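Input:
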Amino acid sequence: NAGVTQTPKFRVLKTGQSMTLLCAQDMNHEYMYWYRQDPGMGLRLIHYSVGEGTTAKGEVPDGYNVSRLKKQNFLLGLESAAPSQTSVYFCASRPVATDTQYFGPGTRLTVL
Amino acid sequence: GESVGLHLPTLSVQEGDNSIINCAYSNSASDYFIWYKQESGKGPQFIIDIRSNMDKRQGQRVTVLLNKTVKHLSLQIAATQPGDSAVYFCAESYQGGSEKLVFGKGTKLTVNP
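Output:
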């Protein structure tokens, strides 16, 4: 049972490039979340999903898109990366029965 | 707006002492609170949670206290160890809040040997 995994662990992009971050969970959780964490700040919610095929905007959704085609995967896309998107991105999941979210190890993204 | 914040950004304690990390929240409708520990370079790790129908909950070496009157949450760590050094976040959510957690900015705990 790997829990929540994220791919890649590190990435450097140039302004304007696109990329997709992959989050996978093997706990059969219904809910999945994408957060960003900037220095000295807590986690801010980008997008989330309450089930396969559904997504919703969080606190800071601009510049990001997501997809939840399979229950176990939640993809975060950056269509045209900007330096302001330099951050550490965390994925989390949780079952319906509890409010406890379980986090992945994070992806450190740098946009030059 | 709704927010969860922390009183102190840093806390330094001696090994073996008890640590208390505080958190203030502003949404009186919040009914679920959770503490996470984040070590450098890692994702947040669940420590303990509490619902609004409780005032206190204990885990292994950790206790969470909830004071709804003043909207205050605290995490107590007994016999703090060097391995407890990390950033600690509180977060809140409420029924009807679309299953979202709102996080505070975190308190960095340093345990001195």
